[in-house]
Predict the structure.
Amino acid sequence: MRRFQIGDRVSVRDATTLFHHRTQSYVRGRTGLVVEHRPEWLIPEDEAWQRDDGRVEPFYVVRFRQVDLWPNYTGLESDTVETEVAEGWLVPAAEETTS
Amino acid sequence: MMPSPSELDALQRRVLGLAPEPAARLDSPYWITNDSYAVLRHVLHDVGGQPDAPVPYLDKEEADWELRTYVLCEVLAWRGVWNSEVRRRAENDLGATLYYGLPYYGRWITVAAKTLVDKGLVTVSELAAKIDEVRARHGAGA
Amino acid sequence: MSDDHDHHAPIEGGDEISEFDVLETAIRELAIEKGLFSAEDHRRFMEWAEGIGPHGGSRLVARAWLDPHFKQRLLADGTETSKEIGIDWLDPTGTGTPSDFTYFYVLENTPAVHNVIVCTLCSCYPRPVLGQAPEWYKTPHYRRRVVRWPREVLAEFGLHLPPGVEVRVHDSNQKSRFMVLPMRPAGTEGWSEDQLAAIVTRDTMIGVAVPRADWNADRAPTEVRS
């Protein structure tokens, strides 16, 4: 049922956020690599209003290259950030490329 | 060539008059741009990557009320009154002044109070009366 | 230190009780009076909260250094393997703690990769194995900077990583909690598990420091302010 496999390149949708979310602005619109699967969890946008019958989605650990996230990144090319993203926030990298 | 005393005075006044551009004053403006709205509705907790200058990394011993606040908030969640994401959302709902003005567990205890009132589990006058009672018990003034 | 920002000044003044303390007591008493939870629930959680600390994580690291099979299990399933040292992530409620859940992952440092943890959105932290987070970890300041300027932040902690080492920041933004498994330092050959655990400080498991054979005190980056 999972849409993405380990090794897939994925982009985080640059969708509107309101009031509460856990998809950081620094990853929205950026492309990274799926490195691990996580279980299916209630999405925080529903959990934050205690909607226990809310949407449950598979989550993924996505690894981003720091140089893709920040202008003039001061570290090394090899440096990375990993964070967890709900499936609904992800699209295959080809569909939405970063600038 | 040396500036004359009056020229120096003018220069010094200009130096004194230089300051970084002040932050925008927010006082319920008649209208704002979409750009301003985007900034204002940026979800507060999403701070990763915001530029900030180095400061010392301080350790601090945890006060009794801080550990008790942690435990209180967790037990409220254990018993289904709320959950940790409701708490984090309620912290965002505090607005910037309170979010940044309160210590970490000061934020937690403030939103615990607010959430109990919002959910109708406690009335605000009941809570205020209890606060006065506890304060009086400690003899810390009325 | 002389700089005494309002930011760090305690709200308590002399013998006056903190308004946060008053508020906590008021809510706790009302909640128990109204049956939102019982005094026994609170006592049970408090007892657990008073028992947690970085000693749990230190034990995991020391044992992983000594026992390759344990290390393999720890990296494969941190939650399950924690039980081998007496830490059950389902404690104290039977379903874990509401803020830290039950998904625990251990991140292995290698000569090629150095891991450091943060929660940029709040301050998610593996409390069952490390106890309460240090104050600096919870500040917007650390949350803002370490994800974008990790090498600068690590250098401010006194940790200078050589070129060739990838810095991998783990932003624990959802239900997983992370701990760093640092590399065993030189000069510890033949040490016992207890001796090794003593040099595995909290900061080495957050990833802002690395263990050294000659450090066994918790290495607070600057000072302790009560």
Observations:
- Chain C touches chain A at residues 103, 120-121, 147-152, 163, 166-176 (CB under 8 Å).
- The first strand of chain C starts at residue 103 and ends at 108.
- The radius of gyration of chain C is 19 Å.
